[in-house]
Amino acid sequence: MDLIAEAAEVTKVTVYQHFKSKEVLLLHCLRWRLDSREGSLDAHFRGKAPSATQVLEVFDWLAQRSSKGNYHGCAFLKATQELGSTVPEVRGIALEAKRLMRKRLMTMLSNGGVPHPEQLSDTLALLIEGAQALSLIEQGTRPFKAARREAEHLIAPYLDALPILAYSARGAN
Fold it and tell me: Residue 82: how many CB atoms within 10 A of its CB?
């Protein structure tokens, strides 16, 4: 709390007046992070015709975000690991974040005419989770690019034409 007060240029007492505990502050941060992520994704896809290939753009969007110097992995996963057993609301927000991502993927697939989009969206969500974890360790975008290539292979049978090699030829970081 001392570091937060210092960064905000307020006293620790002021921080505690707004947030009764560290846990409450964390919950507000997680909610802000989720709202920010969803708003950013909504803005990214606003005005674009819905299609199954949009799931590939999700991987691109995640790779771009992870390429910034302040990427520290999935906040929801990290918070759940640290406090999920003692602060159940943390797990609840993390679960909501993961469900929203799967729902977004499923909607894209469904709009693209992919049969059984719920099954494929689960698989794509697992690719995202793995890429987030490995990207934290590697501090690069390579895991997201590799996950995107696998996602291309998974959705390719449902599309008339998918430029699988076009993205792969760009190389990985």
Answer: 12
